[in-house]
Amino acid sequence: MERVVSTGYVECIRLLLEFGANGTTRMSMGWTPAHSSAEAGKLSALRALVTAGVAVDRKDKYGDTPRRVAEIYGHKECAAFLAQVEQDKQLDIKRGVRPVSPISDVSDDSYEDSYEKDPWFYRKH
Prior knowledge:
Residues 99-125 are annotated as: Disordered. The chain is mostly helical and 125 residues long. Helices cover 56% and strands 0% of the residues.
């Protein structure tokens, strides 16, 4: 998933998610596919993740969100898009609107909680 999102192949992202890929799988530093997309400046990949209902606001083990990663790497369009997604999410919460996609219902565990549940994944191989 990381390679696909960092290249921005939207159709591949859609297919992977459609056939069960986890859009919030974490890599060794706690990055999600959204972090990789933000680092690469792939706005199309971020849009595909959001459209599929994937959470794009999770923090890595250093506390950085994909939005912060986009800002660090100077991808202003990606950072602005992610800021808008966060704002929309806050408005939905205030209105009492629940996400439609089952992907959004995946628990928003912190990096540490995820590590304890699956420590093998985060070890160097």
